[in-house]
Amino acid sequence: MLAQEKDDDNVVIPIPEYTPTGNEPKVTVIDFTNESFFESDVLGRAATTMFQSALVESKRFILIDRTMLAAKIDEMKYSYDQLTNEELLEVCRGLGVRYIISGSVTEFGIKKTGTTVKTKITDSNYGVGGGLTMEMGKGTARVAIDIKFTDVPTKEVPLTTSTVGIAMSKNSVFGLEMLLPIPGVKTAIEFGQGVQGFDNTLAGRGIRNASRQLINKVIESNLYKW
Q1: What angle do CA 158, 102, 63 make, to 5 degrees?
Q2: CB under 8 Å to 169, separation ≥6 — which residues?
Q3: Does residue 118 lie in a domain region?
Q4: pLDDT at site 8
Q5: Residue 136: inside a domain, yes or no?
């Protein structure tokens, strides 16, 4: 029998309200790379997707997505996989894109700490008993993302910025176990350390928080006069 209780830090970082005017700049987002010591192709893709979601939610940009970009590349007879910087700029000019956004996950880590206490008590005469397990722990995800805006008409880089997204999760697990009769087993108490059962979206929430913070930094930078 198992009972589990979670206390997650699910605070969503707000993005300031904005009413579109129709003059918002067009942007396209190049897939983010993973430059952290954590080797995973998923990090860059996840950061790209969540940043795009925050960008669209801000309503301050018109997103030219991968499908639209690929269609224009085909139209101009370029190779998507071998696209040069000059060709990318030409494609973006053809789509009316003002800024190309690129970025990298530069740091990533999850720290888990906690304690597990297990008790097992067995009656040596009858060989029956039970056990109780209690686990309490905490997980913290830390994600750093750096982004760069390239101005398509001028080829200049008017803005670079970075941020660190933090997400935390607390977990408590209680388990009850019935022991089978084993002749001669004496009463015993066991203590151990460890953490189990953490929310598997912890890393994702760290990336999402970092993405929303980046959008807020872009808004505060006065990159564009909205």
Answers
A1: 90
A2: 6, 7, 8, 9, 138, 139, 140, 198, 199, 202
A3: yes
A4: 46
A5: yes
